[in-house]
Amino acid sequence: MRSTLLVATACAFMTSLMPSALAQQSRGAETPAQAETVPDPVKILVDRLDLERYKATIKGLTQFGDRRQGTDRNRRAIDWIETQLKSYGCANIERLKYDYQPPNPDTRSTMANAAGGPGTPTPPTATSVGGGRPRGLRVRTGINNDPSAQSDPKLRALNSQPSAPGAREEIYCTKVGGTHPDEMYILSAHMDGIGWGEAANDDGSGTALVMELARVLNSPDVQTERSIRFIFWNNEETGLNGSAAYVEQRKDLQGKETPPGSGKYPEPKWLGMIQHDMMLFDHGMPREDGTMSKEQRPEADVNIEFQLNSKFASQSQTLAWTFEQADEKYATDYPARVGSHMTNTDSNPFMNEVAAISVRENERGTEIGNGWDPQWHQPTDVYATYNDKDFRLGLNAAQTTLAATAQLAGVTVRKTNSSAQ
Ligand SMILES: [Zn+2]
């Protein structure tokens, strides 16, 4: 009796907290007979993600080295991503064009490698970029721009062409919604990197995640009510220039049918923006001697952040909890945690226009800023640095974003021989 009452109370409490789409999902799940006859389309899609495929997509991106913006290796990576998107059936592939002139002098390219050193206590009054409160031990971080720090001669040669100012492109494709083609969710990651490695984690891991979601959501048997746009930003590492250019060029086009009466919406109204950046490495805090645990910490989590000091803070927070609930229900290994200090990522240019969140391995300000990722912008950010426990954290983030987006965009899976269970 007593336990039944407790369960009932807990369910009522959870339902009242959950956004309506999730509440409906969970009510459906409470009717076993119905659950058996109507397979959960979200679960069908999440099951189409696969660790080996995710790893192979990251590996594919690493053939272009650090993919630094303004270089041939960056442009070749964009062309390669386009070929993959076509093979997934993600039609409507477009490129945003903009111009990038680095500030004089480019301070980021002249910074020496400042990583390493012993772990030192964080001052009690410290505040992180983004507004969070960092704690515990910290090590210095920085951007490597020293070619000789890369011990692999092949990778050193691959990354040798310097960045040139000028014309830039970034690529996106769109799954058009069946009943609301005029509204969309944006799933994104930045494809450029820095540091003379392979940018495997930063941000091959987020780019591969969005590519895998483009693959699954563009399967011929998948329909969504609302549109979903998959965007691969360029120039993130120079200060969010690619995402800022997109907001500037396209925000006023939102929801406009062009040409009138065509049923086509070149820029559907933005409903939410979800950025993915550094998805693999959550080994904990640096130790006193400055070293890190060699293994993913067992209590690793996916960090979902919104920015408290933004115009859409309330809507962004609701979106963040929708993702947290999607992780609870569909992610196989790692939990998600919500934080309020989203910063230094491509969702920032959107946060005063629409609900915007970032998904990461750690909190950007308090944790990565304190040196929790020793590969960050370093020559060691190569595919071979990571093992399956690391890749699995990224896969869990993919499961989370796929599940949440499928629910929010209203997904259905047509019964075919391949999808019928
Ligand atoms: Zn990044």
Task: Report the average pLDDT across residues.
Answer: 90
**Biggest β-sheet, characterized?**
8 strands, mixed
Number of strands: 12
Helix content: 25-40%
- Low-confidence parts: 1-35
Spatial order of strands in the largest sheet: 1-4-7-5-8-11-9-10
| Structural category | alpha/beta
- The ordered string of helix (H) and strand (E) elements is HHHHHHEHEEHEEHEEHEEHEEHE
Q: Provide the list of bound ligands, each named once.
A: zinc ion
Shape descriptor: globular
Give Rg in angstroms: 21 Å
- Total of DSSP H or I helical runs spanning 4+ residues: 12
The share of residues in extended strands comes to: 15-25%
Distance between the termini: 37 Å
Verbal overview:
By secondary structure, this protein is α/β, with parallel strands linked by helices. The protein contains twelve helices and twelve strands. The chain has helices at residues 2-17, 20-29, 32-37, 41-46, 51-62, 72-88, 107-110, 153-158, 200-217, 241-250, 313-330, 388-409; strands at residues 94-100, 116-121, 137-140, 166-175, 180-190, 222-224, 226-233, 269-276, 302-305, 336-339, 356-360, 411-413. The strands form three sheets. The chain has an eight-stranded mixed β-sheet with strand order 1-4-7-5-8-11-9-10, with helices on both faces. A two-stranded antiparallel sheet has the order 2-3. The radius of gyration is 21 Å and the shape is globular. The chain starts with a helix and ends in an 8-residue tail after the last strand. Zinc ion (ZN) is lined by residues 190, 202-203, 236, 277-278.
